[in-house]
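Q: How would the structure tokens look for this protein?
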Amino acid sequence: MSETDTSNKPKQIIVRNIRQKDIPEVVEVANLSFGIPGVAFQPEHYESHIRIFPEGQFCVEYDGKIVGACSSIIVNFEEYSEEHTIDEISDGGYIRNHNPKGTHLYGLDVVVHPDYQKLKIGRRLYEARRRLCRRLNLKSIVFGGRMPNYYKYANEMTPEQYVQEVIKKKIYDPVITFQTMNGFQFKKILPNYLSDDGASLKYATLMEWVNEDYVPPSDKDYRHALPVRITTVQYEMKKIGSFSDFAKQCEHYVHNSSKIRSDFIVFPEAVTLQLASFLGERFPSGQAQKAASFTNEYIKLFSDLAIKYSINIIAGSHYMEENNDLYNVAFLFKRDGTVEKQYKLHIPSQEEKWFGIQPGNELKVFDTECGKIAIVVGYDIQFPETARLAVDKGAQIIFTPFSAENEHDFLRLHYCARARAVENQAFVVTSGSFGHLTHVTQTDSRYGKSEIFSPIDFSFPGDGVIAKGQSNAETLVTGDVDLEALRRNREAGSVTPLKDRENHRFA
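A: Here is the predicted structure in token form.
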């Protein structure tokens, strides 16, 4: 039995504001990204950017190295010509025209190191801009984008025709395709936008992403929404022949969740017991111990997937050995590369009897860029004090990976999860497995349905069900939860159990 290799620490990816000391690295990445002399901003430009508008300048750091960056400015876009150039909108690169009271965030560049393009660096930078746009209550994000493949088609079609063919997926352009896939809409062609861009023949696309949460200035104190998209997996426990098969099945779910821009994906409890289908062990405790021997592979798999697909993963739970004891541990793999753990606290008699699982002793609440979350594993959700403690510590979303042998087991958890959402005014997300591994003792049958619950009030679905799957069918269940609506509900809902229980504590 191998111990967890703590020396093989997952690499961390961080999106943050650019600092003065980062400028040489950012300039290097910009020059590599554009590959065109004279196009990238120079050190003096970046120095001006972070002096004038520091919160609008972002970089991505991977394993301590800057691998991407972007620069932005706030303007009243209506004050500029519809056929403006990059020099006009950026004040020759110095952004002295930045207007803190402006209405639009203008993106000046996005640069990604060529060796790190598979880590969704550009997408992370676009998401950082979106969050800034929402936070500053700006109307939209606007920018002029390159058309690097246009020179190949310039003799056949106009710039407008070229862009439309790219949008229809009949022609591939790495920049336009990426921007439209990231939610930006083509507005018009900008001639003579970037004089040194020969591949684009000096043309650019005016692109825009509209902030659906924008509120006119008179209502700036009112926040419309803080949306979080969650995908929960109905995971099929089917026979596999190797850890590689397990990895492919998991990546399939993660990839499809990332395509719809989910912030979280949730897998079911004891998901790695699927490995027992090829481990050749009949006795349950031996199956759990052999599954635990894959801890390092499990951690590396989901750490890599979280970074690769820029998504936070609650990777179900996994049996893990520590100090010769076996624990049922739920892992949170953040998209920035950090890893968190939550031990199952209440162990059902069957799990203790057959697998020898020991209980954890601490309930944690984790900070994420999408609010505070807790992971309440399976049986733990049937104890009201567990969810109550999580919410008292600040949790807004409770994730519950579970496993159930039959419909009775499932329904107990289902009704308890719904109750926890109502009594704690919180979102509760469940993820279950289903299927038959007839030759694997204690994992031979699974009954599952994955669901997303809300409090029951006027701001939420009438039955408190945001999304649900069909029982025992392989699928991804996705729904959006609104943290701002939750905050308002806790303050002034039809009923306010969270506040009222603080005011009426019993001895």
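The chain has 14 helices and 22 strands.

The chain has a mean pLDDT of 93.

Upvote if useful.
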